[in-house]
Write a structure and sequence with these properties.
The chain is α+β, with helices and mostly antiparallel strands and 219 residues long. The protein has a single domain, classed as Roll (Nuclear Transport Factor 2, Chain: A), CATH 3.10.450. It is built from 7 helices and 5 strands. Strands 1-2-3-4-5 form a 5-stranded antiparallel sheet. Helix 3 crosses helix 5, helix 5 runs parallel beside helix 7 and helix 6 packs across helix 7. It is globular, with a radius of gyration of 17 Å.
Length: 219
């Protein structure tokens, strides 16, 4: 399944380094700092126990729980299905529930795998600078957002990488990452909309199932 975005592989690269960078104050920054500490600790444990399959499984399960508490899957699913979310002509209630489950699993698996150290080596240091955080009105998804602004240098090129957090029922979660102002969530939405219109919701679900199988074969 290919997502049409500036660089989808780069998004996975960012997930590798999402929780590395300087600490920052502010509501979005405080949440960023908290999750950064947890995932860095888990990555360190994975490195130390790389050859112990049972330990790796236990730590991976802990990582999965942190990720699930980090990402706003429910609202992300609504955003990416857009007008199709409650449109029974295109998406049945059963398909909507299955999509929520599959999309949750797909995104969680991708982030978990991205945070797994490879070849017994910790990830190399990169130039990620946390600039600031602020509260803004997100005009794309029409909600209040707490944004952590960062600059990331890769292959000699500097990118603006901004993490968008939302708050529901006093719980903060990540719902979008924008690379040079390009919304990764909006890219998903546009891609999924094209598939649903042309080939139907069941086709999209099958594509996601296949992608999950590919991702989970990594480990």
């Amino acid at each position: 399944m290919k997502i049409k975005m500036k660089n989808y592989a780069f998004l996975i690269f960012i997930f590798n380094f999402l929780f590395i960078g300087s600490l920052i104050a502010g509501e979005g920054g405080d949440f960023y700092n908290e999750k950064m500490k947890k995932l860095n600790k888990l990555r360190s444990e994975l490195f130390k126990n790389y050859d112990n399959k049972q330990k790796v499984k236990e730590i991976t399960d802990k990582t999965r729980k942190v990720i699930k508490n980090l990402i706003d899957i429910k609202n992300m699913s609504k955003y990416v299905l857009g007008k199709f979310y409650n449109n029974s002509k295109y998406v049945s209630a059963k398909q909507r529930m299955e999509f929520l489950s599959l999309f949750n699993r797909l995104i969680t698996d991708k982030v978990v795998n991205a945070n797994m150290p490879e070849k017994k080596s910790l990830i190399k240091k990169i130039d990620l600078e946390v600039k600031k955080d602020s509260s803004i009105a997100d005009t794309i998804f029409k909600r209040k957002a707490f944004v952590v602004y960062t600059n990331l240098k890769k292959d000699g090129i500097m990118y603006d990488v901004n993490f968008y957090f939302g708050k529901d029922d006093n719980k903060m979660t990540l719902y979008d990452i924008r690379i040079d102002d390009n919304s990764t969530l909006l890219d998903y939405k546009n891609y999924f909309a094209r598939l649903i219109r042309k080939k139907g919701m069941e086709y999209l679900l099958n594509k996601i199932r296949l992608k999950i199988n590919q991702v989970e074969k990594v480990r």
